[in-house]
Amino acid sequence: MNIIGLNGSPHGKFSQTLRLVMKVLEGAQDSGADIEYIDLSELDINFCRGCGVCYANGKCIYEDDYPELLEKMLYADGIVIGSPNYINNVTAQTKVVLDRMADVIHCQMFSGKYGCSVSTAGGSGAEEIANYLNRALHQMGASTVGLVGVNILGDPCAVTKKEKDASKLGTLLADAIINCEVYPDQEKLHRERAEYMKNLVLVNKDHWTHEYEFWKKSGDIN
Ligand SMILES: Cc1cc2nc3c(=O)[nH]c(=O)nc-3n(C[C@H](O)[C@H](O)[C@H](O)COP(=O)(O)O)c2cc1C
Predict the structure, then answer these.
(1) Which of 72, 108, 129, 186 would bridge 141 by S-S if both were Cys, CB 3.0 to 4.6 A apart?
(2) Which domain holds residue 10?
(3) Pocket of ligand 1, candidates 7, 13, 87: which has the most ligand atoms within 8 Å of its Cβ, to mutate?
(4) What is the pLDDT of residues 53-83, one digit of tens each?
């Protein structure tokens, strides 16, 4: 069982969000997972240009750190994403990665994976940010097991107080992977989205060649 944790904070080892991501990873590790932490702010990842070349050939026009990051995510059974709240949204370091993943969404490449999200905020909105990240993971095909959001509000112990919850979230993530947990509400949405994406790719099959071939290989398109 392999679980990776991404953090979109630019604060490196001083990141508050890092503390939550690490607790989730440690919780998963205690349940037997191999873990890896990735600081997104250390990666060189360009903005998506919306050119659609990845839909056509599965490769981006940019030669940067994204393909290796994607490889790691595709290899992982579980994905943890963390971002602080920056102006009521994820950080640019996080969003630049998500924007590169439209091909993953069209092909529902995270189908069968599990994920969860964490966030910290100076004042408010941490749970909303983590919820947004979980929705992004779900959109890619993953099932999500929960979230932890911490609004710090000047309390130096705010993150410490939630570390146990983050650790439990990691255990939950590992257990979901081990037991191939099924969440009926999420499954219904996955099925509906897969149907929608498959039809979208079919309509565009003449120029979205890679995505058409991907669905064909999965046996869902003749
Ligand atoms: C540019 C910037 C924008 C921010 N926007 C918000 C905000 O909209 N709401 C909020 O509650 N905190 C905001 N914060 C505070 C961060 O969310 C908070 O300090 C967070 O814990 C930082 O996490 P990190 O240490 O992992 O980077 C902002 C901080 C910065 C630097």
Answers:
(1) 108
(2) 2-182
(3) 87
(4) 999 999 999 999 999 999 999 999 999 999 9
